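Q: Got one fold?
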Amino acid sequence: MAQNFIGCDRDQVLLMPPSLREWLPEGHLAWFVLAAVEEMDLSGFYGVYRLDGHGRPAHEPAMMVALLLYAYAKGQRSSRVIERVEDIAYRVIAANEVPDHTTVARFRQRHEVALAGLFGEVLALCAEAGLAKVGLIAIDGTKVHANASRHSNRDYEQIAREILEEADAVDREEDERFGEARGDELPAELATAHGRKGWLREAKRRLDEKRAEEAAPIPRSRPERLREAKRRLEEDLAVECRANATYEAYRARGVRNDGRRLGRPPKPYQPPERPAGKINVVDPDSRNIKSPRGYVQGYNAQAVTNEHQIVIAAEVSADSPDFGHLEPMVSAAQDELEAAGVDDTPEVVVADAGYWHQAQMENVIDRGMQVLIPPDALKRRGARPGWDGGAYAFMRRVLDTETGGGLYRKRQGMIEPVFADTKFNRRIDRFQRRGRSACRSEWRLITATHNLLKLFRHQMAPTAA
């Protein structure tokens, strides 16, 4: 009797079934993503295309959204990888089309705001499935590398010198091309102290918020990025000078805003003549921030999760510490829940010691929520020096109770696995795009696909059982 093997005929004319529906089994993630996209409001994507149909036809936005959601869920974010990946699910989602990497990259750039809005659409689907319960929420941040090296940080003099060298190189190149001519004869198409520190810190915080609201894209060419980096350093110095002058005028009055007299004058301070500090010339929005494994050039990606490990708010900051992000993230979570149609209000907020900000904690408590934040970090032995009595002692007593300690112990299992799955399972530990606005859009897309995977597993669980 002859040996029995499965046939291996590479000359077979029809290798796959003629229907795309037969290419993947029922219950595959690709079918789930396509069904989820059908439930989403994609008017933000369709609204930027011409209504008269003129021009070269574009890929269907719904297909491109599904393609990106599936790719991000699989941890594949590079447009070139998406173009050449040998996964039959991509062909099913794209209806046997193959969008090239330029199309994918431009779609992601063109629809930056709409892609960030997909977070809310996925959260609404999770709410319909009962996964958006928010009796207890956890807040934490993780450091994500920017698409820039920390070795690209430059100070003002280095940037100015590089700009001059660039200009000198351009002049030499134009001298070789034009000789004694001006060069504009070519056709147009060829033209190419504590109190003082507090004031200064608050002024720079407002400047960072202003830049975040402007959401200016990072220039593509290096000369333009150099000029932008130089402009920002000069703007930082101007803000520091104005804040210092305002503080000096405040001290000159001799009284506080509440009428009390001020103490002895602080040591005189004169802002530097030239901008101090450094800025990254590849991604000027990124910062050299501290992480558990040292300093990285990147962003502080913030998230709020519930007990189902569903991310209900996701934002990006350039600040290294988590201090000061408690109230903004609680507000972001409430806004996202309201937009998703969730009427529940968080009852208890838990976060690690880095979020201790007494004024913000009191503001959150005034909204009807309880806050559980230890005043002492786990790696510290004993209490912080000077952090005794008052709110510090009260919080320690609360966390020592069975109820308070039990709620706080849930924090690690609620949010840490989300970051672990994102960074290690899906291998997403670096942003692909540059600029805070672009990275915020990407972070929200990353967390949206995390929620989509949680929803997929939740719906597949009864089938498996």
Summary: The two ends are 43 Å apart (CA to CA). Residues 182-194 have pLDDT under 50 and may be disordered.
